[in-house]
Amino acid sequence: MHELALTQTIVEMVAAHAQGRTVKRVTLEVGKLTCVMPDALRFCFDLVAAGTSLDGACLDICEIDGRARCVACGQEFIRHAVYTTCSCGSLDFTRISGEELRIKEYELAFDGAAQIERGAA
Amino acid sequence: MCVTCGCSEGAKSTVTNLTTGETTLIADHHHLRVHGHDHHPHDHDHGHEYPVHEHVEIVPFEQAVLQKNDALAVRNRAWFEGREILALNLVSAPGAGKTTLLERTIRDLKERYALFVIEGDQTTTHDGERIRAAGVPVVQINTGTGCHLDADMVARGVGELKPAVGSVVVIENVGNLICPALFDLGERAKVAILSVTEGEDKPLKYPHMFQASQVVLVNKIDLLPHLKFDLNLCMANARKVNSEIEVIQISAASGEGLKSWYDWIAAEWRRVRDQTYGSVEKRI
User: Fold this and answer.
1) Where are the beta strands (DSSP E) in B206-256?
2) At B121, is the secondary structure helix, strand, or coil?
3) Residue B270 is assigned to a structural domain of this protein
4) Is A116 domain-assigned?
5) For A90, which of A44, A72, B114, B183 could close a Cys bridge (C-beta 3.0–4.6 Å)?
6) CATH number of the domain encompassing residue A29
7) In sequence order, what are the residues at sequence separation of 6 or more whose Cβ sits closer than 8 angstroms to the Cβ of residue B10?
8) Residues of A in contact with B68 (CB under 8 A)
9) B61, B68, B245, best to mutate vs chain A, most A CBs in 10 Å
C-alpha cells in the first residue's frame, strides 16, 4: 500500500512548509489514472497526521480527468482507463492529464494565519 | 508502536551489504521533525476588526508529492549515466521468477559484464544470499512495511555497492505489480516479468506497471504444454496497455529464449556506453 508512504510524504511536506503552525485543511490534486486510491489516502491521512501540526486537518481531494490527444486524428478525448483507444481506433495518443499527484494548497488555522500576518508586519 | 505513523518496531528500512555482512538503518523513516504546536506568545495587538472564525489563510503550495523521490531519481540516473552503467529495475508479482532469472543471467553473463545487484524485499536476506552465491556483489534492502523501493533506498544501496564504471546494475524490486510503478529509481529501464502461470490478462489488470516498463519478459514458457495460456493474447494485452513495449518469451529454468534477453541487455549496454539514447528517454 504505497498510499501510506505517500501520505507520510504529504504530511511531512506540508508540516515542514507550515513551520509548526496548525494546518486545518490540505487540498490535493489526484489524477484519475494515477495508481493512487483517494480512499486509501484519506484512510491513512488521519492516522499519519495524528500528533503533528496537521492533527485533525481535513483532506480535500480533487480528482482530475485523464485527458489525451490522439496522434492520428488530433482530437482530444477523455481516457477512462490506462488502456483506451481514441474513437478513431488509434492507440497512439499524447497524455495531457490524469496522472497528477500534487499538493495544491493548504489552509492555516487562526493562530497560524495570525502568525503569518505578524511575520509580514 | 510508533505514535507518528503507527508502524511497528520491525518496520524500519535497512541496507545489508552481503559482502561485509554489515546492516545499516535507513534513518529517514518519514518521521516528522515538526511535532506538536509551536505556541508563540501573542503579546501584541493584532487589531482584528472581523470575527475570528473568518480568519483563515490559504497557502498556495503546488508541489508534486513525489518531487523528492523524482529529484533523487534524476540524481541516480545522472550518476549511472556518467559512469556508463546500465541500471535495470526488475519488477513483477511475487513468484514470477525474478530471482531465478537473475541467478541464471548472472551465471551466463558474469564473464561478459561486471554485474552488481540491489535486492529489494520486505524482510529476510534470502534472495540476497542466492545472488551472492551466484557470485556477484549484492546489497539487500529490506523495506520493512514498505511495498516498494524508492530512489533514496537505491542511492544508499549504490553507495554500499560501489558499482564499477561500465557495469550492469540490476535492481530487483519488491514483488508487487502496483506500487513500484509509481517510484522512479533512476533506472534506464523497467523490466517487467510475467509468468505464464499468472494469466494472460495480467497487463490489463495491472496496467500502470506494464505502461511504465520498456520490456516484458514472459517467463516459465517451458510450462506452456501444461497450461491453458494464450501467449498471443497475453502479448496483445501488453501492447494494448503500452504499444511500444517489447515482449520476450523466456524460461529461466530451461534457458529457452534467454538469448533474446541477453541480446536486449547487450544492445542497451552498448547504448549506455556510446551515450546514444533513443526511445527509452522519451518515456521517462
Assistant:
1) 215-219, 246-249
2) strand
3) yes
4) no
5) A72
6) 3.30.2320.50
7) B123, B144
8) 9, 13
9) B61
Instruction: For residue B238, tell me if it sits in a domain.
Output: yes
pTM given for the model: 0.82
Enumerate residues 155 to 184 of chain B having a beta carbon within 8 A of any beta carbon in chain A.
Answer: 178-179, 181-183
What domain range is A8 assigned to?
2-65+97-108
Spatial contact of A26 and A10, defined as CB atoms under 8 Å apart: yes
For residue B53, is it within any domain? no
Cβ separation of A6 and B65 shorter than 8 Å?
yes
Q: What is the pLDDT along chain A (121 residues), one digit of tens a residue?
A: 689 999 999 999 999 999 989 999 999 999 999 989 999 999 999 999 999 999 999 999 999 999 999 999 999 999 988 888 899 988 888 999 999 999 999 999 876 555 555 555 4
The number of distinct structural domains making up chain B is: 1
Task: Please judge whether B147 and A47 are an interchain contact, meaning their C-beta atoms are less than 8 angstroms apart.
Answer: no
Domain of B117, CATH number, reads 3.40.50.300
CA distance B102 to B96: 12
Give bridge partners of residue A101 from the DSSP assignment.
Answer: A30
> What distance in Å separates residue A18's CA from the closest CA in chain B?
9
